[in-house]
Amino acid sequence: MVAARAQFLGAGHYRPIAELLVNLVHSSRLGGGLVMEVGAGTAYYLSQVVNSLPGRLGLAVDLSKHAARRAARAHARVYSIVADVWDRLPVADEASALTLVVFAPRQPRELHRTLRRNGRLIVVTPQPHHLVELRELLGLLKVDPSKESRLARGLGSWFRLVTKKPLEWTMHLKSADVAALAMMGPSARHLDPASLSAGIAGLPDSIAVTAAVTVLEYRRL
């Protein structure tokens, strides 16, 4: 999964998300402090944000030690730790000025505890029609249509929503890109490799795929 994620993200297919994160961070005019990404994987998004903030340090948190090794090499100012996002994070109270959660699990209590009082939490979630062209063809997991309302309920006791930005674009993916995309997410645990290969073999050389996400910015209550 880590290698697939590095391959797909490295090709720039999700670059619009990183660009919107950078723009949102700068429009928020945050002061100095640590930038943390929870469920960071290879720290693709974290490294883009840190690179746009001279002198700021980044901390990537992920359960996978393989992802943590890659994350530590993502940028000279990004460090990584291995930790379960559902457990108490080995991070001090109010240590983070900005916390990112991109397509990753969220534990509201710990996100609240580790974010400073005037900090920001930015969450990226898929919309129901994200990757719709591939879901039926390859058996990828569907996005729960109530995902955003569940997110609001989960975070509502701890955070106040201040910005909501939908983002949609079309990706043109080759077979290798589709394979990496399928293997880098939660669907990878449920897919039969033979069925996946057969499904990809039946696709055209290049397929247009919809990417649709929502970017949400929160402040601590």
Describe the protein's topology.
Layout: H1 2-10, H2 15-28, E1 34-38, H3 44-51, E2 58-62, H4 65-72, E3 78-82, E4 96-102, H5 108-114, E5 115-126, H6 132-138, H7 147-155, E6 159-174, H8 175-184, H9 193-201, E7 206-220
Features:
7 strands, 29% strand, Rossmann fold, alpha/beta, 37% helix, 221 residues
Give the CATH class.
Answer: Alpha Beta
User: Can you summarize the main beta sheet?
Assistant: 7 strands, mixed
Estimate nothing, just give the exact number of structural domains: 1
What is the mean pLDDT?
92
Q: Do you know the CATH architecture?
A: 3-Layer(aba) Sandwich
Radius of gyration, CA atoms, in whole angstroms? 17 Å
- In N-to-C order, the SSE pattern is HHEHEHEEHEHHEHHE
Global shape = globular
CATH topology: Rossmann fold
